[in-house]
Amino acid sequence: MLSWWAKLVFLFCRANLWFWAKVLLRLRIEGARHIPRRGPVLIASNHVSHLDPPLVGVGVPRFVFHMAKKELFVLKPLMLFMTVIGTIMVDRGQGKQALISAVDYLNNGECIVIFPEGTRSRDGVLGRGRSGAVVIAIRSGCPIVPAAIVGSEKALTKGSKFIKLVPVTVKFGEAYTIDYRGDTENIPREVLRRETFRLMENIEALLPPEMQPKPEQKAKWYRDCVEQPGSG
Fold first, then answer.
1. Shortest CA distance to 35 belongs to which of 25, 44, 46?
2. Which residues contact 112 (CB under 8 A, 6 or more apart)?
3. How many domains does the chain have?
4. What pLDDT sits at residue 158?
5. Domain range for residue 140?
6. CA distances (Å), 188 to each of 8, 10, 116, 140, in order?
7. pTM of the prediction?
8. CA torsion, points 220, 225, 226, 227, in degrees to nearest 10?
9. Residue 206, in any domain of the structure
10. Does residue 6 sit within a domain?
C-alpha cells in the first residue's frame, strides 16, 4: 500500500533510527523470527513511552504500519511523515473507522503494530487491554504476534523532553491465531474478554516481574477469565 518513494522514506528513516537506537540505547531485538515475513500479521505490544512505536517498528523485518492517536496528527511535520508512511489515525470518538482501516490493511497482506492498552502506562506496569486488537484479528483472520518493550519507560519518562541513554529491549513472542467461527460483526462479549485476556497474558509473559500487573488487578479487569486471588 506504500508508493515506491514512501518505501524509500520508510527504509531511510528506519535505517537511521536503527543506527542511533543501537548507539544510544543499545537496542536489542529478540524473537524477530516469530514474525511472518509475508502475509497479514498484527503485532500487539505494551506501551510505556513515546519511543515505543518507532522502536517496536524498527525491530520488525518488513514494512510495518502503526495506529496512532489523532492528537499526534496536529503537529505538521509529524503529520506529514505519518501520512507518507501510511499511519492509521485513531480518533477515540470514532474508533470504528480505525478498526475498518486496520482490517483493510491486513486484508491486503500488511503488518500492523497496535498497543492494546490504548495509552501509555504511567508506572511501566502492563495495564488493562482493550478489545480493539482482538476485533481486528478476528475480522481479518490474521495471526497475532505479542511483543514487549522494556527500558523505553526509563529512556523517555512521561513529561521529559530529553532521552536518557539506557538500554532498551524489544521482544517478540510466538504468533498465534484466534479460533472463532461466529459472526465477526457481532462478536460476543465473553469471546472479546477471553481473547483480550489471552493476548495480554502473552504480552505479560515477555515482561520482567516488575512490569507485570498483580493477580488481583487482572481478576478485576478480566472477570471469569482469571482465577480470583485466594480461591481454590
1. 44
2. 41, 42, 43, 64, 65, 66, 67, 88, 102, 105, 106, 136
3. 1
4. 72
5. 25-221
6. 42, 38, 18, 17
7. 0.89
8. 100
9. yes
10. no
